[in-house]
Amino acid sequence: MKKIALLTVMAIVLISCNNDDDTVTITPVNVDFNFTHNWDGTAIANADFETTQYTNTASTVQTISKIVYLISDITFTAADGTVYDAGDYNLVNARQETGLTFTPNIQIPPGVYNVSFTFGFDDEDNIDGAYNDLNATSEGPWGVPMPLGGGYHYMRLEGKYLDDTSTEVGYAYHTVRANDMTMTPLLLQDTSFVVNLGQVTVGSNTNVEIKMNVAEWFNPWDLPALHAMLMPNFDAQVSMSQNGLDVFRLGTVTQ
Amino acid sequence: MNRYISLYLLCSLFVISCNKKDDGVVDPGNGYVPTPMSLNIPPLFEEKLIDPLIPTDNPQTVEGVALGRKLFFDPILSADNTQACADCHSPQNAFTDERQFSIGIDGISGDRNSMPLFNIAWNFTEKFFWDGRAPNLEAQILEPVINPIEMHNTWENATASLQARNDYPDLFSKAFGTTTIDKTLVSKAIAQFLRTLISGNSKFDKHLANQASLTPSETNGLAIFLDETKGDCFHCHGNPNSPLWTDNVFHNNGLDEVITDLGLGDFTGDPRDFGLFKSPSLRNLAYTAPYMHDGRFATLDEVINHYSEGLMYSETIDPLMKTIAQGGVNLSEEDKADLKAFLLTLSDPEFINNPDFQDPN
To answer: What is the pairing mode between strands A89-93 and A178-180?
Structure first.
């Protein structure tokens, strides 16, 4: 029995190594992504952080000091319904310019795909303390405390706005899984969301730009009323998630 | 049967040829290879953190760590042979100085509090000093020896002193395969020792391992620490899944209305960095007073009062500092006491008394 098993394994190895010249070989490829950030079409560069003033739809003047966010499960869906998903994730830090490029750990056949990703972690992936590289990052700990439901932040967007006396006030627009600590047991709602980028033709050297329009996070938003302590604010988390649906767009695709 | 033996040998050869030498220790070129030494990583760190950062050109070795430890406690590196690293980084103070400002060999006082030293290998930002001006640990170690208000020496003089001693050339030979001492090897040896300074056995660590229980006050203190509407300490200092208890990132935490010490900004020249200093770990607070980059707070109560009602606005203040107009979140006295009780559970008496971290000279 052992001999049969050994022969079977060796046969599989030989078959898998066999170069069959009679068939057309489709070489699977990786797809690269890069992340860019803008305010209603105006690019946000490092020099803009903390200095450039933006006016949101509520006419509140604000600056941005930090944009750090997590995306996961970049998914390629072929016309025949075949789904390719590496199941990995990427932490983007716009100001520190880390994570701006990302290549999912999966190779797919060239072709036309519908491309989507998850903003944050969905509940299936949002496992408390499970990702060592997120427990302590160069941005700091990325986790969400257990009293707030655990898991991980989706985004930390921070800066300052001018109040009605033109005084600068800090804001921390942090998106996490919505949680209501007043409920027992803790009420949780998955406020991550899937961003559908549309169709992309994947070739041998494809790069896909994902554009974040930061202004859409504040469309609409009452920053003076909702600028801090948003993590335990269930309704605020739901609203931020809804605003997020208009934030991302497919940018330039190069081959 | 012979076929199986052949297959086994073939597989063995394959495995051996693919073997990665994880210790990273390489022959320096003369056939001598020092003894690889692993870091003694606490189980919680293994479980929650990625691997510590060990430079490929400075792997941990038994001989290197021993040499670094000896150098750390030896005043030979100072110009007048009176001051060792340990004089301002005492083991009993979690390798910081109980004085607000350390005093150099010429009696001159510094202007920043000595930083505590532990869990350095997990500094993923790779920026050292309060102002982040050193790009790695080895580079950081080079500075105090030649700083005019610290050891006030030159590296030429320091290495000549080491070279002239009976013991050091042999110790460098054992650690690095050469008797020729230079500043690079000195910094490498001390860095190896410093990376062994791992603190991960506090009461709270034991609590997480189900080996200790928190009191109700400590438990409430943790809840305040993790509550964004109260302490909100976790954004900069982590949570039970992030056992470093620091983000190793730079912040203006509202100490002053007028910034005189530019901190990170003094190094980068970027006005947006003015007044930013690195978050220290909250481990071992029982031993690391006074607090803040300038040691302005003598007690932990003063620190908590600062965040509760003492915040001052300045242009670069971190957005995470809330309700600045009211000075902070105004914790109740009970909450302050509980927060303090929790913070003290992060202290690790085993660390400061570890015999491997004491003066070997």
So the answer is: unpaired
